[in-house]
Design the sequence.
């Protein structure tokens, strides 16, 4: 049967992988191409690159990185950050991305999700949602790297993105991100139960039990983590073995 | 003369297919092409595809590639991938369009509200790494039984002639994920994105000399 996926996430700025805590306080984690190869060797199921470059001058760096990774790594690559129009989707796919992740621009211009999925297929359009709890059982969508509230309800927004043609949802809890206390499981469960398309849980992984909980308790189809892999606490292989011991189907 | 032609009809991204073939066959000439003459001249042909089948059929015809693809499917080593598998059949329920009709059978969608029998919803598209139960064929050489390959699709093929089935996978019911006939092999998963197992399959295709 289908395996649950483990997806290391590489936040990239100015050609380096960095990791923040709750979207701030960046720490250098190394060269993106080397890190990508290492995770591929460890058995990562996919890789996600988020271009968090603030300056538009540095935008082209991510294309070179993706080109280099795509020559050497033969697993699906997702790239997000700064995608504003269909042409941006096209450029990233041409550089070697298999999927493109759209976040702020999906809120600013939902038609982009419809247009991009109609043109390139749902399979390559991921909508990333940054969610923050505002009441018990209620989460609001934030954009612009978590700085701007939208007033949108996360579950409703995820449903809308599915109907417009998103092939997958990358769901990040802003409350948990970088805290190493585990995913927001209630958020993950609420979104995954509401959708037909796969949901990737993100934000807050501090140990291997958190990954397993995302699948078993949150119902996630895939789990994404950054710092536990970047700083050598665990390998992807260790994460998979741990999940397999908990009865979760993984690709070993 | 091109050793390997990758058919480009404007749907989706063929760079990863190209990169993977280059990786396993660095000494061969590999060309991504939308020209019928280039497909006709190539020693072997890869027929990939992404997106919706009606669009794929339309774009292929808009480029005048139908006859070249049909010829290749009948007379040289030919590898269909994903929609490139589905397009070989007679009909798809996606948009209710006819396919190329090279193989008898149809393309149907996974049912909605699937579950794994333990209360967990199975999502559509079927996306990720699934086990492939394969038959005996030189294309499977060096690939473990139940090796995992990367899939992303909502439709799957139902061949009328079960004799062409080369592999199945489970979601949760068995579905056909590879077929073969004479010089033709076609898979639902993406070998170009399936790590070592996928590269092995591509290598086997490059080395394949069907009689």
Sequence:
């Amino acid at each position: 049967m289908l395996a649950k996926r483990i997806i290391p996430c590489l936040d990239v700025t100015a050609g380096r992988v960095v990791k923040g805590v709750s979207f701030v306080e960046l720490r250098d984690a190394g060269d993106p191409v080397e890190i990508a190869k290492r995770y591929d060797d460890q058995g990562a199921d996919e890789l996600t690159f988020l271009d968090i470059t603030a300056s538009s001058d540095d935008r082209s760096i991510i294309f070179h990185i993706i080109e280099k990774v795509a020559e050497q790594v033969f697993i699906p690559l997702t790239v997000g950050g700064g995608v504003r129009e269909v042409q941006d989707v096209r450029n990233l796919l041409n550089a070697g991305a298999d999927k493109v992740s759209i976040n702020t621009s999906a809120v600013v211009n939902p038609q982009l999700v419809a247009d991009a999925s109609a043109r390139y297929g749902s399979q390559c359009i991921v909508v990333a949602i940054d969610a923050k709890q505002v009441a018990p059982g209620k989460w609001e969508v934030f954009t612009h790297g978590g700085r701007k509230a939208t007033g949108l309800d996360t579950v409703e927004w995820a449903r809308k993105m599915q109907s417009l043609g998103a092939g997958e949802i990358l769901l990040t809890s802003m409350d948990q991100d970088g805290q190493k206390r585990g995913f927001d499981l209630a958020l993950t469960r609420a979104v995954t139960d509401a959708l037909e398309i796969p949901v990737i849980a993100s934000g807050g992984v501090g140990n291997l039990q958190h990954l397993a909980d995302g699948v078993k308790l949150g119902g996630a189809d895939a789990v994404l983590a950054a710092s536990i892999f970047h700083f050598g606490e665990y390998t992807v292989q260790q994460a998979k073995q741990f999940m397999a011991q908990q009865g979760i189907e993984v690709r070993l | 003369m091109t050793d390997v032609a990758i058919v480009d009809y404007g749907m989706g991204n063929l760079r990863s297919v190209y990169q993977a073939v280059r990786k396993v066959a660095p000494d061969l000439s590999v060309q991504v092409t939308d020209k019928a003459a280039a497909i006709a001249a190539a020693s072997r042909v890869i027929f990939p595809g992404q997106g919706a089948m009606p669009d794929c059929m339309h774009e292929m015809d808009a480029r005048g590639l139908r006859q070249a693809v049909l010829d290749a499917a009948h007379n040289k080593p030919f590898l269909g991938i994903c929609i490139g598998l589905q397009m070989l059949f007679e009909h798809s329920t996606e948009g209710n369009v006819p396919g190329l009709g090279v193989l008898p059978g149809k393309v149907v969608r996974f049912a909605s509200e699937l579950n794994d029998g333990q209360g967990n919803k199975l999502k559509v598209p079927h996306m990720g790494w699934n086990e492939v139960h394969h038959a005996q064929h030189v294309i499977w050489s060096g690939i473990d039984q139940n090796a995992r390959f990367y899939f992303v699709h909502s439709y799957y093929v139902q061949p009328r002639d079960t004799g062409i089935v080369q592999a199945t996978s489970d979601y949760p019911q068995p579905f056909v994920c590879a077929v073969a006939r004479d010089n033709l092999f076609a898979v639902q998963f993406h070998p170009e994105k399936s790590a070592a197992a996928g590269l092995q399959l591509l290598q086997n295709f490059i080395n394949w000399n069907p009689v």
